[in-house]
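Objective 1b. Sequence-to-structure analysis of S-adenosyl-L-methionine-dependent methyltransferase.
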Amino acid sequence: MVHADVPDDPTAYKRQEYWEERYAKEESFDWFKTYEDLKPLLSQHITSKDARILMLGCGNSTLSEDMYDDGYHNIVNIDFSKTVIDNMTEKCKDRVGMEWIEMDIKDLKFEAGSFDIAIDKGTMDALMCDRGDVWNPDEELVRTVAQEVDEVVRVLKIGGKFLYITFGQPHFRKRHLERPCWTVETSTLGVAFHYFFYHMIKQDTPSS
């Protein structure tokens, strides 16, 4: 799917002001795949409808709404855009129990070990939009992505899962996801164009 509001500078995807302006005029947009596409893999990895789920950089995707309507009622959605959080709070006001919170994915305000599942559908990709060498990303990009992943590790319970949906191939993404507390596993979606579904389970290690 091609979106009309594609910035000339890809690094715009990393800037909050770009998203505030875009969400002010856009009701809904789904990056990569919809819940219908993802449901087989999500249901395989989220075995309880009561799981506490953190949606990282929720944007105005329909994923959380569709998951809620399918029985996942304990979803906490975060985004650094106040505009989209306000819009989604109003849009989903009848979905009782689902939360929408303005928050930076690199600085989560949740207690350690407070989520069963963390989902990133394209958010990390926005952080990685850069004009540099994808084979040798600059230190700032590496540090920024590491902040998100480290925060996910912190807020997940032991046995909790990090699910990441992206077009990023393993040789570009696995290095950013690897941590002592888990093994990075990969599944693929699509036929002509592949998307990747990374799944990690937090283990009890001395560093956890």
